[in-house]
Amino acid sequence: MRRTLALVAGACTAVVMAGATAYAMTGDGTEAKPAGISRLGKAADAPAPAAAGAPRKESGAATGGLPVAPASGVGSAIDAVGRQKVGSLESVAALLDYKSEGTTQTFHYPGAEYVKVHFDELSMLPGDYVTVSDPQNTEVHRVDSDPLDVVGGLLGSRAEADSGSGRWAMSVTGDTAVVTLHRAVPDPLGLQEAAGLGVRVDKVARGFTDQEQDAENASELRTARSLSENGREESVCGSNEARDAVCYKSADPAAYKKSKAVARLLINGTELCTGWRLGATNRMLTNNHCMVTSSDAYDTEVWFDYQCAKCGGDAVFKPTKVWGDKVLATERDLDFTLFTVENFTQVQKFGYLTIEPTRPVKGSEVYIPQHPGGNPGMIAMGSDKDSGGICAVADPSYDGYGQDSDVSYYCDTAGGSSGSPVISRKTDRVIALHHFGGCPNSGVRIDLVYGKIKKLL
């Protein structure tokens, strides 16, 4: 049976907590309000971008209109084949039984960016449910039992636990999660307790503290430098010129609008990639090395509108979180995965991207909306490695997993950028699916991917 998760309190309410933002389900099309603090370090009053962006032409564009806010604190680790690690798994053994009304368990990890609990047993009667919340109940997620869980509990079966599956709850922002068991009908005779019903948490995914994330980034940087000795450099090519997406709201409104269709992927509670809406229907695209199976999608949180509210600032918009659902197509050689999400209507308002079916040419200007290091959305457009000061296609026939399978460029990326769209400045359509660092960085040619998935769009 499919899990049932719903926001039951704190709609349009955010947790102000260093590290991320609260989940809030918003159903209207209005612009979100700033809420929360991101992991971007010290807030700064960034210089405002120019009123107009660099002219949208294919080459030789000036950089005068590009945002000049200080780059956010994103690690410059190479975006190698793999997900960006942002947390760790902790083994626990916590049981919530029917001994008392509103039984609770609290999971506290000082300094963690988020806490995400996993249930290996959910044996509850119909109408009973569990909530996972922050201590202030401003972010609350509900988990209902499945009929098979109830039967298993009454029969003393541990089929779900023994299968090694279980269920993840949606993450809670901050370093503390409170799990509460709610009963629909009082049980003064203790029959439910005698039947062996209850809820058990067997593990918790918690986000790194600032110090742990710094150590992880340093480790990845050492790996990057090791690779550079063999001809692969870091994914930040020269100075890091990626900027908060909102910096382009006036400088390049089209790029800013397109960035709204790009989502942060929290996979299995501890790893990150980027994904994006493809077309008007329920379709998302990311890398194969980020997601392979529907089981992967099932345990992936998809965060839309996780962006800074001010250029160079710390306050971020409240993200809308939905679960991944089903993988429709995937391939290693072209490193793509096409998948769907649950509660699709909740994310339709963020728009979508379209594919440029023709092969790009050398010198074509591009930009990359992304979540480097899992941070709020950024756009890489400026480049001190390109003569015009704007990211451009360096080689339209670059080797990836296959010969001539990729497009190369010097746009700045980092761990977590995998799966980002590489977009033409001329057409605002996707020309490649980013997947490799190395300066030049590269993405799979989207015309090749399109040939594999067009019947599913």
Tags for this model:
single chain, 457 residues, alpha+beta, Thrombin, subunit H, Jelly Rolls, 2 domains, 8-stranded antiparallel beta sheet, 6-stranded antiparallel barrel, 13% helix, 32% strand, elongated, Trypsin-like peptidase, signal, Peptidase_S1_PA_chymotrypsin, Peptidase_S1_PA
Description:
With 457 residues, the protein is an alpha+beta fold. It is 13% helix and 32% strand. It has two domains: 11-84 and 233-456, Thrombin, subunit H, CATH 2.40.10; 88-207, Sandwich (Jelly Rolls). The chain has eight helices and 27 strands. An eight-stranded antiparallel beta sheet has the order 13-22-21-25-26-27-24-23. A six-stranded antiparallel beta barrel has the order 14-15-16-20-19-17. The chain has a five-stranded antiparallel beta sheet with strand order 1-8-7-11-5, with no helix packed on it. The longest helix is centred in the middle third of the chain and has 19 residues, at 210-228. The protein is elongated and about 70 Å long.
Provide a concise account of the structure shown.
The protein is of the alpha+beta class and about 450 residues long. It has helices spanning about 145-155, 160-165, 190-195, 210-230, 250, 255-260, 295-300, 445-455; strands at about 5-10, 35, 85, 85-95, 105-110, 115-125, 130-135, 140-145, 165-170, 170-175, 175-180, 200-205, 245, 260-265, 270-275, 285, 300-305, 315, 320-330, 335-340, 365-370, 380, 395-400, 405-410, 420-425, 430-435, 440-445.
